[in-house]
Amino acid sequence: MVKSKGLILLAGGLLLGSIMGGIVFLTGVAKTAEIHPAADASLKAGNPMPDFELTSLDNSVIHINQYSGKPVIVNFWATWCVPCKQEMPLLERYYTDQNGKLIILGINYEEPLEIARPFVLENQITFPVLLDSHGKIRDQFMIRGFPTSLFIDSKGIFVAEHIGALDEESLKSYLQLIGVKI
Fold first, then answer.
1. Angstrom distance (rounded) from CA 180 to CA 67
2. Is the per-residue pLDDT at 33 higher than 50?
3. Neighbours of 129 (CB within 10 A)
4. CATH class of the domain at 43-177
5. What contacts 73, CB < 8 A, 6 or more positions away?
């Protein structure tokens, strides 16, 4: 009898905890939707890529629409992200090999210039690196993990999103989708 009472209390506690967790989760989702009402709708395959503005490591202001006419990869990363570090040489190689036919914009997430710049120099990254110091652009596009790469074709149309590190095969597939000849 005591054992069954314990099981009933345990089951009741688990049920109550699940209900409370669901309420907290749904409340958080609703708040996120209120904070970023247009972000979810704007980043859908087939839609034009929304413009944004960030400052680069050399203090230039960069707009994504200034690269109109060229395919673009927007890569969200951070120096503390191991998979980000692992894919950087691959992105750099394709950026260099394409010799201006492919634009790659690295968006560093919430790290100061004093951390991002030495990483870029040490790893010999030559594509433009932009600073998302307050996470505004990450929030605008509802980036859920690092690294995340957004693929935009030469007409400025958002084509695909890849969450996680890119490997050679997946990068080649995405590049074909945005019209890059390999």
1. 15
2. no
3. 23
4. alpha beta
5. 91, 102, 103, 104, 105, 149, 150, 151, 152, 174, 178
**Bigger pLDDT: 8 or 141?**
141
Question: Out of 29-33, 38-42, 94-98, which region has the weakest mean confidence (pLDDT)?
Answer: 29-33
Q: pLDDT tens-digit profile of 152-173?
A: 999 999 999 999 999 999 999 9
Query: From CA 60, how far away is CA 128, in angstroms rounded?
Result: 10
Q: How far is CA 9 from CA 3, 4, 16, 17, 133, in A?
A: 10, 9, 10, 12, 48
Contact predicate 98/126, CB 8 Å: no
Cβ contact 96:127 at 8 Å: no
Task: Tell me the CA distances in angstroms from 78 to 23, 24, 28, 143, one per residue in order.
Answer: 32, 29, 25, 13
> What is the distance of C-alpha 81 from the center of its chain?
12
- Residue 45 CA to residue 43 CA, distance in Å, equals 7
- Which value, to the nearest 10 degrees, does the dihedral of the CA atoms of residues 139, 140, 141, 142 take? 30
Both tokens assigned to 4 = 């069954």
| Contact (CB, 8 A) for 182 and 93 | no
